[in-house]
Amino acid sequence: MARITLRQLLDHAAEYGYGLPAFNVNNMEQILAIMRAAQATDSPAILQVSRGARSYAGDAMVRNMIAAAEEMFPAIPICVHQDHGNGVATCTSAIDQGYTSVMMDGSLAEDAKTPTSYAENVAVTTAVRAYAHTRGVSIEGELGVLGRLDTGTGEQEDGHGAVGKLDRSQLLTDPDQAVDFVQLTQVDALAIAMGTSHGAYKFSRKPDSEVLAMSVVKEIHSRLPDLHLVMHGSSSVPQELQDEFNAYGGQLPQTWGVPIEEILEGIRYGVRKVNIDTDLRLAMTGAFRKVASTRTDEFDPRKFMIPAMEAVTSLCRLRYEQFGSAGKAARITPVPTSAMAARYAAGSLDQRITTS
Ligand code: G3H
Ligand code: 13P
Ligand code: ZN
């Protein structure tokens, strides 16, 4: 099936009241595992590619692996999304590679570490939006800086995240500013800061409203009911995955992720895209550890990869079912980017701002 834009997918998700997990991909095994889950549940898929993934695999490899996935899974609409673009060049090069969606993360400067001013964020996001929409490609913006509310720190383990201490006003998206930002930039989706952060170490206990500010989702949704919200750093870091990892020699300190019930609450209030990377990493490496410690004479990498892919497929199946995207693939016919470009040019996709 043809590629689909993020905007078309999220409009469908909003119409039918569900959410879509967006899974990070770096290699063939992750792509196969996610696509098998999408096929088994009849869910559309969002495959998102970080700058780290593009430099790990190389643009040609990423492009061709995704082309292979389209050929192998023709019934599944696939959105190919640039995760955390750090500037115009990253996003325009992704669009030129055939991505159907880009995230311009203008909350941080091009170094992906230094928080920007609001004006800088608006300027760079608007520049990318102009390039993207002219080509019918969707754009996700970000307002507010991802990071932990208890420590005031961004994640440091993925190379993309604020360095140093952040104050609460930076760590929580301002709903009034969100209205202004969407009006000015005309992004198709908005990532918001609400206490989630990337990586495994999000919360030091099961999160409550002190550290996971679901109120931000609700306030923005009440002002912008038609806006598609994106939750980043939304791995749940399931206890079973932590236990499995540690049962075979791992030393992951006890940690807590974003509970599924909080994500489902978000979906009720306009969250349509839920970013998940860490859970897939943990599922894969936990499976590697099990093979390495229980079959110590095994040296065929495929014997490590097969259970790792199965672990990722079962996690992804669960998320497609939990978020409600299961069963939706067959109900969507992708609109080509050329037709999306015409709709943007006609103004029919302008974000409807109904402030209350
Ligand atoms: O944006 C965060 C994702 O977890 C991607 O991480 O840059 O190490 O691929 P990465
Ligand atoms: P996790 O680290 O919680 O999986 O978040 C991934 C993410 O937000 C990618 O953009
Ligand atoms: Zn993210």
What would your notes on this structure say?
The protein has 356 residues and is an alpha/beta fold. It has helices at residues 6-16, 28-41, 51-57, 59-72, 88-96, 118-134, 168-171, 175-185, 214-223, 239-247, 260-268, 278-294, 301-323, 337-346, and strands at 20-24, 45-49, 78-85, 101-104, 138-143, 189-192, 228-231, 271-276. The mean pLDDT is 96. Bound molecules: glyceraldehyde-3-phosphate, 1,3-dihydroxyacetonephosphate and zinc ion. Glyceraldehyde-3-phosphate binds at residues 24, 50, 52-53, 83-84, 158-160, 198, 277.
Shape: globular
Mean pLDDT: 96
The largest pleated sheet is described as: 8 strands, parallel, barrel
Task: Report how far apart the termini are.
Answer: 40 Å
CATH architecture heading: Alpha-Beta Barrel
Order of helices and strands: HEHEHHEHEHEHHEHEHHEHHH
List keywords for this structure.
8 strands, binds zinc ion, 356 residues, binds 1,3-dihydroxyacetonephosphate, TIM Barrel, binds glyceraldehyde-3-phosphate, alpha/beta, 8-stranded parallel beta barrel
